[in-house]
Amino acid sequence: xxxxxxKRFVAKHSPLxxxxxxxxxxxxxxxxxxxxxxxQQVLARTTFVGVxxxxxxxVILTAGIDLSVxxxxxxxxxxxCMCMKAAGLxxxxxxxxxxxLFLGIVAGTATGLTCGAVNGALVAKGRIPPFIVTxxxxxxxxxxxxxxxxxxxxxxxxKAFAWLGGSRAxxxxxxxxxxxxxxxxxxxxxxxxxxxxxxxxxxREAARLSGLPVDRVRIAAxxxxxxxxxxxxxxxxxxxxxxxxxxxxxxxxxxxxxxVIGGASLMGGEGGALTALAGALIMAVLTNFCILMGLNDxxxxxLIGSLIIVLVFYDNLRKRRAGLLKE
Length: 327
Hints:
It is a single chain. This protein is mainly α and 327 residues long. It has one domain (29-319): Orthogonal Bundle (ABC transporter involved in vitamin B12 uptake, BtuC), CATH 1.10.3470. 76% of the residues lie in helices and 0% in strands.
């Protein structure tokens, strides 16, 4: 019995063990990898995808998908940066005013919330497949970001804005990501909403017959995903101190890959916040190692794509043996 419990625990949290094993191997093979400066860069670069992955996870748990998070992040970043650059507000509050920063971050996050809520309403109430809805939102948000900015970047942002992305202190966005991940883990483990997410993803019709508010749960999942994408867009803009309509391209695939590497099932009802973050870290560590080894971008993609398939296959094999994987 005890051995069986250990096997199930290891299988459920295998992404964490895989991450530890990869880090140990890379630290031995490449001494520069284990330097504190390099590890700080890996953590800092994981924050954006990590935030997106937590929101994406909630949607995946309901057996949905959100392809729009990257474009929504770009749109939110543009809206937030444009608010901070608004002539009237800047003249009133000054470029370093806390109020100006707060308004910009709130505007960007609210933009993400709006896009996510629209996605959820169309999926839950409109009965449109999530793939179609979020694909459409991906195109709408990206186009809107370019229309708002005229295809131009927004720069000369308030200097204090650099704190959010870690330009002033690398640990600040890392701490925010850990707080978001911890909150997600607590909600999924102990809150009623977390149990509802797993139930809806496990068997939507059974959840509906049991009296669960299925539509509201699905709308909330997409809304939270959009909110975190909006906030992530502000984090990304802060890192570069530029609001770009082309930011976060293909990052939706990184968020989905992080969830899958972290053990989430695209069929719904399976996954965790900590392991989703571990999936994002695995991808960041692999990319960093390729850069340290001097591999060009094409070889990086080949290696990382291949390792993702191998890791997911290995993770699924362990879960199948432990009886945790749904066929």
